[in-house]
Amino acid sequence: MSSIKIKLKEKDVQQIKEIASSFGNKPGELINVLHKTQGVFGYLPAEVQEVVAREMNVSVAKVYGVVTFYSFFTMIPKGRYPISICTGTACYVRGAEKVLDEFKKELGIKVGESTPDGKFSLTCLRCVGACGLSPVVTVGTKTFGRVSPDKVKDILKEFD
Amino acid sequence: MIKLIIDKKTVEVKPGTTILQAADSIGIHIPRLCYMNLSDFNIENKPGGCRVCVVEVEGRRNLAPACATECAEGMVVNTHSIRVLNARKTVMQLILSDHPFDCLVCAKSGNCELQELAQTMGIRDIPYQGEQSTYREDTSPSIIREVDKCIMCRRCEVMCNEVQTVGVLSAINRGFTSVVAPAFEMNLDHSECTFCGQCVNVCPTGALTEVDHTNQLINDLADSSKTVIVQTAPAVRAALGEAFGMKPGTLVTGKLVSALRELGFDYVFDTDFAADLTIMEEGAEVLDRLTKFLNGDKNVKLPILTSCCPAWVKFFEHQFPQLKDIPSTARSPQQMFGSIAKSYFAEKIGVDRKNLVVVSIMPCVAKKYECTREEFSVDGNPDVDYSVSTRELANLIKRANIDFIALPDGDFDNPFGESTGASVIFGTTGGVIEAAVRTTYELYTKKHLDKVDFKQLRGMEGIRSAKVDFNGLELNIGIAHGLGNARKLLEEVIEGKCAYHAIEIMACPGGCIGGGGQPYIHGDTSILKARQKAVYEEDVNKTLRKSHENPYIIRLYEEFLGKPLSEKSHNLLHTHYFDRKKEIIIE
Ligand code: SF4
Ligand code: SF4
Ligand code: SF4
User: Fold this and answer.
1) In this complex, is the C-beta atom of A51 within 8 Å of any C-beta atom belonging to chain B?
2) Which domains does chain B show, CATH number per domain?
3) Are strands B227-232 and B356-362 parallel, antiparallel or unpaired?
4) For chain B, how big is the Rg over CA atoms in Å?
5) Cα separation, A111 vs A128, whole angstroms
6) Buried b (16+ CB within 10 A) or exposed e, B86-120
7) DSSP secondary structure letter of residue B34
8) Is B103 near ligand 1, meaning CB less than 6 Å away?
9) B389 is known as an active-site residue
10) Which range is least confidently modeled, A64-73, B130-139, B159-168, B436-445?
11) What sign results for the dihedral spanned by CA atoms B168, B171, B172, B178?
């Protein structure tokens, strides 16, 4: 009958503690603390939420509630090559959804998830301001314009 | 005072009163769904989310939610104008459009507030059709979560977070996919849930219900190779009658016994007997620690905390593991009964423990979990096979075509049927400690106790403290019911703000009479008071009112156990606790 164990590195715990105390450990500042914490870790895994809960003196269920309420927060680490698909109006009208579906199919993941090998992750973006090139996809630091579903395979191959 | 008119009736209320409360005060029942008011515990849930309670306020353009709108001078309110009725109907139809059509096979059917409302409003069709949200079912030893049926009233969240301060449940996600769930959507069984079942008690729908053991029971009763015995907890007799339309607070002990006999149990016993046994062991422990303490032994830990509530035990194992040496090591009455039944009694009637099925009838759902704790089994065979709630028993009685009201009064079987008044009051907050005081007083002072009623220990206040005179020694006693109150009291103890010799804690508001397995009270806390009264009534009706006077208890010690805290007692009647705190391992 062991207790529940959470594993984290000392310096990670220290960082969370500092962020929490910079907001006075006030439960009302939970969203800000999570925001900053995600800025540091890139995402909010369960372990991190446990420590945040403890530092902020709120239940971890509440922390999880906030994390799942705001689409800004994510519990999944970004892949080495994060894929973003613009679903702004212009891209959407020109078939961004079909492109998105193709990425999902090729990678076997949903929006907000990463591939098991940690290589790719998938997110949607609002208008990136390159409507002339719509539909637009960015992978890592590269941008692809006028993407159609049949080009998806080739794009992914570039990152082999 | 503010004067307003509701449905042509004038009413005067204090400033700050809501329209809903004002209407209630003059007997106008505005329908409601998410709203909950447990007035005796100062708990009000009014998220204003469901919009079922909308009313028309003259001069306002929009309909107002009555639960969240304060009364104003001269207001004219109509609670059933055609506009209101239509709006309410639409709201209900929208809620139902994302609700499974499971009424025929739903555990909550007949007790469901959503179903009742749909009937009252005459909903006969649902014009809105769309996608329905679906979630996996989550089963734990005590509670089933069928979140498809969640209407996001968030009553359970208030219960778990504010009343019980366990903090297991929270609203998650947003919009269409939002539900109430534990962190990371883990199963309740993996969380810090205490299985107190208070969330089940307040859930208006079938989203939260207890694990049902009645089918297993029916099978066991039909199995001729098994001897099936039953024990029934003190608080059950003070509430079971409600399920058959009897007035809250009606004692049905005799009918309960007859019903159990008709159902086919081989022996009908009383958990009260085991409660007397608990007092023998716990009382001896109190006396032992107290004497050592008074003699200046620095190793002795006071206060001693009661340990008969499994939800409370799980609570301190998670939340206050540093205190795990303070509670009494005495097992709960349910478990004491089980271990004695499967040793002493099994031997007596010559039945192997594997063929002896011990069933308990409990006002509680945490007891279901308690039965499954490993330390309460021998070679994988549990001391208590399973526990059935008051509600489940009521259903089973109906299913067996038994006319409960017409049943004659029956008597419990012996040797575990005799009990004292001290054991009956285990069912209410304050009762366990009063029972303990009655026995330890005589053990400590070696004097006869004439007045057994310790009124200072009784009541419904969440946290109480009282002094009891032990012939010159003043004993400080603390009492808390509801886990939030327990937390408060414990924190005071840790901070050294109060010095108690003994503390009684029960997880459920009101104690076992308000347990998670009792007939639903639908927010009417006066029912708990009626049950409490009944329990004290039964105490007064008993000839014997001190646990150590129970002749069958005396005989059990003579024949089998030796004396309280003997080696045999330790093995069979005591337990140990685990540190279940979440640990952060730093690498
Ligand atoms: S929760 Fe209520 S309305 Fe829903 S299926 Fe069950 S009984 Fe019917
Ligand atoms: S059973 Fe009690 S502790 Fe568990 S979720 Fe419900 S209210 Fe919270
Ligand atoms: S589980 Fe029940 S009590 Fe909790 S929010 Fe859903 S419907 Fe309300």
Assistant:
1) yes
2) 2-80 (3.10.20.740), 95-210 (3.30.70.20), 274-331+419-552 (3.40.950.10)
3) parallel
4) 25
5) 18
6) ebbeebbbebbebbeeeeeebbbeebbbbbebbee
7) S
8) yes
9) no
10) B130-139
11) positive
- Candidate list B150, B512, B547, B569, residue with the active-site label: B512
Q: What is the pTM of this model?
A: 0.89
Q: What is the ipTM of this complex?
A: 0.82
Q: Provide the 3-class DSSP secondary structure of residue B507.
A: coil
Place of tokens 């339309």: B245
Question: Rounded CA gap, A66 and A70, in Å?
Answer: 6
Asked whether the CA dihedral B115, B121, B125, B127 is positive or negative, the reply is negative
pLDDT(B583) > 80: no
Which residues constitute the domain of residue A39? 10-69
**Amino acid of residue B99:** H
Q: What is the pLDDT of residue A5?
A: 65
The domain that holds A98 is classified in CATH as: 3.40.30.10
**What's the farthest any 2 CA atoms get from each other in chain B?**
80
Instruction: Confirm or reject: Cβ of B198 under 6 Å from ligand 2.
Output: yes
pLDDT category of residue A2 using cuts at 50, 70 and 90: very low
Does residue A17 sit in the same domain as residue A53? yes
pLDDT tens digits for B385-407?
Answer: 999 999 999 999 999 999 999 99
Q: Which amino acid would we find at residue A3?
A: S
Domain end marker among A20, A39, A69: A69
